């Protein structure tokens, strides 16, 4: 065995491909999609516009955006079999239900096996509209209600809240959801996008890749963090308990959820928009408690920040959803709703000049063992 083999556990710091989709400057805490700052997009854009930008590489003109929005709306349909699958699995975690439904869609949609670039664009667009429908329908069905039909007058974010709650959201609530989806839409070679690319590397179809991505997103080290942050906030209970909580976690060398990132050493630039959302919403709703506890955790983590440990996008996201009365187990699915355009374009980029992704593991197990028959063991 060669001794000069270098093992990069977790592929930390490894470039495996070139990309024209998004750029993360971890040291400066900057993120751009197709060259546009995330701050400009969060402040001025809509999710539909950002989805178009990601997929097509350019901001849309007004007629292009109108046509794209119309295409997304006309994709707001699900086969009856999907509602039946949701009903049969309704007591499961919403991420498990969502992943199962998307996997089933692969078998139900006529052109899901189309692995051309046009096929990926069409299937990605459909999944962008169908994934929020699945999450909302599950929430209705598990509460003994019928799914709420999509409202074709509403944009993507407002329609999702309408389907989820059965009531029209305020403009502020719809805009906050819209910004949340924009912030979550794309993030380079994160774990779920990477696994989606690995799947496409085998020449599998987009539904297979999105199913893989959903499975990968569900873990607490990735998309599951927002849910865990709110569990942590509930456990802490009030701001004055935050310091003791952090101290105990650090003493046990356990991670404080919502902090840390593989790439960012400065604060995740997406966090500031969510922080502002929680602060404003908490004030407006006369419930500033969540914001106060979160800020107390941030303060207690200050001594560790000099090591590059800062809040990530999911630190404040859960509190926004909590203030909107959205159950905790829907936080990861909400992340997934936003990420569909990112997964789609990552898969398309992989498809262009496709290559099998297949790294190596260095074998360190036993060697030259003599096989022992069953009766002699
Ligand atoms: C949308 C997203 O996916 S964002 C990430 C969401 N996940 C979370 O919020 C879960 C909590 N965070 C974590 O578990 C980690 O920060 C991860 C998994 C996101 C990144 O992990 P890594 O890239 O392996 O972390 P990294 O190598 O930068 O760690 C550097 C040091 O900071 C520590 N560290 C990293 N995250 C945390 C944390 N949340 N709390 C306390 N310490 C931490 C590590 O233990 C390590 O310390 P050491 O050098 O003494 O061993
Ligand atoms: O980039 C990552 O590793 C995780 C992340 O923040 C994301 O997927 O949005």
Which residue ranges are poorly predicted, with pLDDT under 50 across at least 5 consecutive positions?
A: none
Please report the distance between the alpha carbons of the first and last residues. Answer: 30 Å
CATH top level of the largest domain? Answer: Mainly Alpha
Q: Look at the helices and sheets and give the structural class.
A: mainly alpha
In round numbers, the mean pLDDT is: 95
Instruction: Give the count of helical stretches.
Output: 17
What is the beta-strand fraction? Answer: under 5%
Q: In the CATH classification, which architecture of the largest domain applies?
A: Orthogonal Bundle
From the 3D structure, determine the CATH topology of the largest domain: Citrate Synthase, domain 1
Number of domains: 2
Bound molecules: acetyl coenzyme *A, oxaloacetate ion
Which term fits the overall shape?
Answer: globular
Elements, N to C (H/E): EEEHHHHHHHHHHHHHHHHH
**Strand runs, count:** 3
Largest sheet: 3 strands, antiparallel
GO molecular function: citrate synthase activity
Protein name: Citrate synthase
Family: Belongs to the citrate synthase family.
Catalytic activity: oxaloacetate + acetyl-CoA + H2O = citrate + CoA + H(+)
């Amino acid at each position: 065995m060669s001794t000069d083999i270098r093992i990069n556990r977790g592929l930390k710091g490894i470039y495996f491909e070139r990309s024209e989709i998004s750029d993360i400057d971890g040291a400066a805490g900057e993120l751009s999609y197709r060259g546009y700052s995330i701050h400009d997009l969060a402040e001025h854009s809509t999710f539909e516009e950002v989805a178009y930008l990601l997929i097509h590489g350019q901001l849309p003109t007004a007629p292009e955006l109108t046509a794209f929005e119309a295409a997304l709306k006309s994709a707001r349909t699900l086969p009856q079999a999907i509602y039946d699958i949701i009903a049969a699995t309704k007591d499961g975690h919403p991420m498990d239900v969502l992943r199962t439904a998307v996997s089933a869609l692969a078998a139900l949609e006529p052109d899901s096996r189309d692995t051309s670039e046009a096929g990926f664009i069409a299937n990605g667009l459909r999944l962008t509209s169908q994934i929020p429908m699945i999450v909302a329908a599950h929430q209705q069905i598990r509460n003994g209600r019928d799914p709420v039909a999509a409202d074709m007058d509403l944009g993507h974010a407002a329609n999702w809240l309408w389907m989820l709650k059965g009531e029209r959201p305020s403009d502020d609530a719809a805009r906050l959801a819209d910004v949340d989806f924009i912030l979550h839409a794309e993030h380079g070679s994160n774990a779920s996008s990477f696994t989606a690319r690995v799947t496409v590397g085998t020449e599998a179809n987009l539904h297979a890749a999105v199913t893989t991505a959903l499975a990968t997103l569900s873990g607490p080290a990735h998309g599951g963090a927002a849910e865990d942050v709110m569990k942590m906030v509930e456990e802490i209970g009030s701001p004055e308990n935050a310091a003791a909580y952090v101290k105990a976690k650090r003493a046990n060398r356990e991670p404080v959820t919502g902090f840390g990132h593989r790439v960012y050493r400065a604060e995740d630039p997406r966090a500031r928009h969510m922080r502002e959302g929680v602060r404003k919403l908490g004030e407006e709703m006369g419930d500033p408690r969540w914001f106060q506890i979160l800020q107390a955790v941030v303060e207690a983590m200050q001594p560790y920040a000099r090591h590059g440990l800062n809040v990530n996008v999911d630190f404040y996201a859960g509190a926004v959803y909590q203030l909107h009365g959205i159950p905790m187990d829907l936080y990861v699915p909400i992340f997934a709703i936003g990420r569909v355009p990112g997964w789609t374009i990552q898969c398309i980029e992989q498809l262009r000049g496709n290559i099998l992704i297949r790294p190596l593991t260095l074998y360190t197990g036993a060697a030259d063992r003599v096989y022992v028959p069953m009766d002699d063991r």
